[in-house]
Amino acid sequence: MKALILPFKGKHPQIHPSAFIAPGAVLIGDVEIGENASVWYGCVLRADMNKIVVGDGSNVQDGTIIHVDAPEIGGLPTIIGRNALVGHKCMLHGATVQDGGFVGMCATMLDGSVVESGGFLAAGGFLGPKKIVPTGQMWGGLPARKMRDLREGEDKMALMGAAHYVQEARDHQQALDFTDLSPGPGDMRSKPCD
Length: 194
Known about the structure:
This protein has one helix and 22 strands. Strands 1, 2, 4, 6, 8, 9, 11, 12, 14, 15, 17 and 18 form a twelve-stranded parallel beta sheet that branches. The protein has an eight-stranded mixed beta sheet with strand order 3-5-7-10-13-16-19-20. Helix content is 11%, strand content 35%. Strand 21 (179-180) and strand 22 (189-190) form a beta hairpin. It has a single domain (4-190), classed as Hexapeptide repeat proteins (UDP N-Acetylglucosamine Acyltransferase, domain 1, 3 Solenoid). It is mostly beta strands.
């Protein structure tokens, strides 16, 4: 199994050579993946109507879905800045995660919503259209609202997580380099290590 990288209406995903795109991920259309960024197993980034950007060093973790609407109907691109963290099974639609922003597992961000640099959207949080998680704050709940100010160092969690995922991506790529993913009996078979 490989990642599905699909051009759409003349727009081709642009992936930096150092980026990690896990098997089973789907990237469609006007997608841009930056240096040392990672898109993990089971993610779907469908940029068929607008742009999706994953900035340098950022990660989009397993099972996340990112989509956009067309500008003609007011749709916005989804922009993930540098060294940002988007947790497992999130949903982002026309949203922005600024440099060093943190989006916890199973969180949702709708059109025009923003997690600012050093902002933190807690796991399961539902950030409605045009809502903003300011720098230094943790928001969560349904709908998301301010829970508290971040404690010293918590605003750096995305940066630490991003650095961890850069190395994790390298480790996964190395493991995949030694695995035969071609179909056959048992499907995946490890190659002998030299």
